[in-house]
Specification:
A hairpin with a 5-residue loop joins strand 5 and strand 6. With 142 residues, this protein is α+β, with helices and mostly antiparallel strands. The chain has a single domain, classed as Glutaredoxin (3-Layer(aba) Sandwich). The strands form two sheets. Strands 2-1-3-4 form a four-stranded mixed beta sheet. Strands 5-6 form a two-stranded antiparallel ribbon. The longest helix is centred in the first third of the chain and has 12 residues.
Length: 142
């Protein structure tokens, strides 16, 4: 299985997600999306694979979201994607893609929906919170 993570090393959620992937036996392709943003085509593809609305991928905190007025419903999906292409910091993270499936991994344990039975039963996040694989898996991911 091939995994890709669109990662921001300054983000604790992103670091935890990457660590969970590695603990599960993956060595994912790590794309620091602020340095190497996805193409428009890839971003549209990821949104489709995640099954979310374009607006659901917008990050507000620490971005130009408010100054650009992106909360206004006047913006079309295409325009919102244009903003994300111009300002990659607007793309929420981390996004993980595994074999034709993708997920915005907020919280980080959402990554467990993409990977088969992990090689661990519990995982300690950076803040010490313990994630139990069995409790984190949703019934649809089994």
């Amino acid at each position: 299985m091939h995994a890709t993570i669109y990662h921001n090393p300054n983000c604790g959620t992103s670091r935890n997600t990457l660590a969970m992937l590695r603990e599960a036996g993956f060595e994912p392709e790590v794309i620091e999306y602020l340095k190497d943003p996805p193409t428009r085509e890839r971003l549209v593809q990821l949104i489709g694979l995640m099954g979310i609305e374009v607006r659901d991928l917008l990050r507000q905190k620490g971005t130009p979201y408010d100054e650009l007025g992106l909360g206004d419903p006047k913006w079309s999906d295409a325009e919102l994607i244009d903003f994300m292409m111009q300002h990659p910091i607007l793309i929420n993270r981390p996004i993980v893609a595994v074999d034709g499936k993708a997920r915005l991994c907020r919280p980080s344990e959402a990554v467990l929906e993409l990977i088969p039975e992990a090689a661990f039963e519990t995982f300690a996040k950076e803040d010490g919170e313990i994630v139990s694989v069995k409790k984190s898996r949703s019934p649809r991911s089994r």
